[in-house]
Specification:
alpha+beta, 5-stranded mixed beta sheet, 27 helices
Length: 723
């Protein structure tokens, strides 16, 4: 976009990632770097052959020697319990029990064996020399690798300096991927996205190091995959990029960068905006980054970041203090009213609290927050440079704060019109406190103490009796289930007729498709996010299911959508008239009295809350039908529209277009309150099924209920009828 970007990166591994991503190689260059590395020798043997031989096993089917992709270990075991391979001779593949030969090969690489001792010692020496106080912590980190893996990895590292300089960086990138994939922290089968602590799972993979190198070729960015990005100018501080754009890397902490910016007088730097991906505490990544830095580039490269080896626990209070310190240094060098966008991946309540509390206390003003829970992503907009310390200390009692949080939370639920998650409630509470400047504590409170106090107050606010109802919750975990109003009838809604957020998304999608002949998904999503901003940002899957319910891929452009012909307003109005006529015709055919026939005039627009009743000879209602063209159900299932005389056996039917079934199913799964209401006896009938029934000759009172319910919501096509 033409901006110059200045970034402070203290982690050598993060710097290296940035350097490679900024100027991605050709895929062929990665392949050539691996070939150069594998072509080096130890004695007369090529490194590739030596490493592959470390992981050979015997095929359980044909008994020929094959190369294992990985071995499976149980925590604390002395040998692997399983192996994964694919035999090119007989085709046998998958996970098999480990053999005695596999146990013997792994035993050759115990920590005490001469084969691995030298490599283990070198792995330790590269990070923390003999008299280094961090040596004991480095040794603990190295225990995240099996001895055979350390031998294979350092066989590669020892050969890095022997390959051409132009290939060394890319070979280091491939080895870095092997460092990541070949430790013992990855559970088998994979139970989590990535390790966060240095804790060996009960069952893990010992990855074939050479396989990991080959797979890494496809995981690193390359110019073929990023056809629109061939690189940006990259400079290291104090050299600045040219005026038209580029990236400048400061190798150090933001505190050190702020110190230098304050001292720099030759060329003042005007910071126009701040953009950051807020770091989430990750002991495994940070500790291993120190280890990997030393392995690849020596102890001097790891030294500025090596302090992370000592820390074993990162709680949210500590993280709030760390973020607050960085925010404080940032405020030293930015002008008043500088915009600040913080991206928060893997968002959760504690992470949000740490960031928003720290920011508010040190002087960042919160403009707004957008949250997408399914993507575990939050976007936070602050304004920098305001003098927070001129604000008065919050004098409100915890009880008063709880009352403010409760009122704000009830209002938030009413705006959404549907049960919400704890994360959404928590984010709303933090937003209310930050924008009302109710987080600043007495001067003697540290940031971590303020975090603990405010976070506890928020949690206690949601434990108050008489305000909230929870669906699918656990009493032991406040973060489970969905939250709604205890008494929705008395508190009212900001939107009428029980209309939920997903109902509003549905309406906006339809209106957008009506107004635009074609649109891309991104264009539609952008329009919705402008309409439903901040706390009402819809999830992407919510937008997509609404779009798929009404739209179809354009015949002119496969990347664009358009409104289906049958969902155009005039077509659907005609369908509503026809469906009501069919319901009346079917009821009369099997001898029921049909009421509300006066609503069938073709000139009259049909309302979804005008039910059709089938009654017996005594006038008792046995069936009621609501015919709708949308998937908006609240004005039916939450309202007292089923008139008397009432029968406990009354069958309540909602008649919908078949294209709406997926959206209705999504809403029921998404909203436990709606699911509860629908579960009280409501059934769904599709337009297409009514048409089929109208052609069926053998309908009667005994089989009509069974026939009406043949085409369930999840069915793509009901069973064919043979009579």
């Amino acid at each position: 976009m033409g901006y110059r970007v200045l970034v402070a990166v203290n982690n050598p591994i993060a710097r290296f990632l940035l350097e490679v991503f900024t100027n991605p190689p050709l895929k062929g260059e990665l392949q050539a770097a691996l070939a150069a590395l594998g072509g080096t020798h130890i004695g007369n043997q090529r490194i590739e052959i030596l490493l592959r031989d470390l992981y050979t096993t015997t095929c359980a089917q044909c008994e020929l020697t094959v190369e294992a992709q990985a071995f499976i270990w149980e925590r604390g075991a002395q040998s692997p319990s399983g192996r994964i391979y694919r035999c090119t001779n007989c085709g046998d593949h998958g996970e098999k029990l480990a053999s005695q030969r596999d146990a013997q090969k792994s035993a050759d690489f115990t920590a005490q064996s001469p084969t691995s001792n030298l490599h283990l010692a070198r792995a330790l020496e590269r990070v923390a020399p003999l008299n280094d106080p961090d040596r004991v912590y480095a040794k603990e980190a190295i225990e995240s690798y099996l001895p055979r893996t350390v031998y294979a990895l350092f066989t590669l590292v020892n050969k890095l300096d022997t390959i051409p300089v132009q290939q060394r960086k890319l070979a280091s990138a491939l080895i870095l991927s092997a460092f990541d994939q070949c430790n013992t922290l990855w559970a088998y089968p994979t139970a989590r996205e990535r390790p966060r602590v240095l804790s060996v799972p009960s069952r893990f993979r010992e990855q074939n190091v050479w396989y990991a190198l080959e797979e890494a070729i496809d995981t690193w960015p390359n110019q073929e995959a990023l056809s629109s990005h061939t690189g940006f100018p990259l400079h290291k501080w104090p050299e600045l990029p040219p005026a038209d754009s580029g990236i400048c890397i400061f190798e150090g902490r933001i505190k050190d960068l702020a110190d230098q910016l304050e001292r720099k007088s030759t060329e003042p730097i005007e910071i126009k905006a701040v953009l950051t991906n807020l770091p989430r505490p990750n002991q495994a990544y940070w500790t291993l980054s120190a280890l990997w830095s030393g392995w690849l580039w020596g102890g001097a490269a790891a030294a500025p970041f090596k302090s992370v080896l000592r820390r074993r626990r990162y709680d949210w209070a500590w993280h709030s203090t760390a973020l607050g310190a960085n925010f404080t240094h940032l405020l030293r060098v930015v002008s008043k009213s500088t915009p600040f966008l913080g991206l928060m991946p893997e968002v959760e309540p504690g992470f949000l609290s740490a960031a928003l509390i720290a920011a508010e206390i040190v002087g960042l003003d919160l403009e707004g927050i957008a949250l997408r829970e399914n993507q575990k992503l939050a976007q936070i907009h602050w304004i920098c440079g305001n003098d927070n310390y001129s604000r008065e200390v919050n004098k409100k009692s915890p009880e008063q704060i709880m009352e403010i949080i409760t009122r704000s939370s009830l209002s938030y639920i009413r705006k959404r019109g549907e049960p919400v998650s704890y994360l959404q409630l928590h984010a709303n509470a933090l937003t209310e406190l930050a924008q009302s400047h109710l987080m600043k504590m007495e001067p003697e409170y540290s940031v971590s103490e303020a975090f603990s106090h405010i976070h506890k107050t928020i949690v206690n606010s949601f434990s108050r009796v008489g305000y909230f109802r929870r669906y699918g919750s656990s009493k032991k975990n406040i973060e489970t289930g969905r939250w709604f109003l205890e008494d929705s009838n008395s508190t009212g809604f900001d939107y009428p007729d029980g209309e939920s957020l997903v109902d509003r998304v549905e309406k906006l999608v339809v209106n957008y498709l009506i107004k635009n002949d074609t649109c891309s998904f991104d264009e539609l999503e952008r329009s919705l996010c402008e309409e439903l901003c901040g706390p009402l940002i819809p999830e992407r899957d919510m937008v997509r299911v609404c779009l798929e319910s009404y739209g179809e891929i354009s015949a002119r452009n496969s990347s664009e959508w358009c409104l289906r012909d049958q969902d155009k307003p005039q077509s659907r109005q005609e369908d509503l008239l026809k469906m009501r006529a069919l319901i009346n015709e079917l009821g009369a055919r099997i001898g029921y009295q049909v009421s509300n026939l006066n609503n069938l005039q073709t000139s009259q627009r049909i309302s979804s809350i005008q039910p059709v009743y089938w009654s017996d000879e005594s006038g008792k209602h046995l069936y009621v039908f609501f015919v709708i063209a949308s998937a908006i159900l609240g004005n039916i299932v939450y309202s007292d529209l089923v008139s008397t005389p009432y029968s406990p056996a009354l069958r309540k039917m909602i008649v919908i277009p078949g294209g709406r079934a997926g959206l209705v199913h999504f809403k029921i799964e998404h909203d436990p309150r709606l699911a509860e209401a629908v579960g009280s006896g409501w059934e769904f009938v599709k337009f297409r099924h009514l048409r089929r029934l109208s052609d069926t000759k053998r309908l009667n009172r005994e089989n009509i209920t069974e026939q009406l319910l043949l085409d369930r919501l999840a069915n793509t096509d009901p069973q064919m009828q043979f009579w």
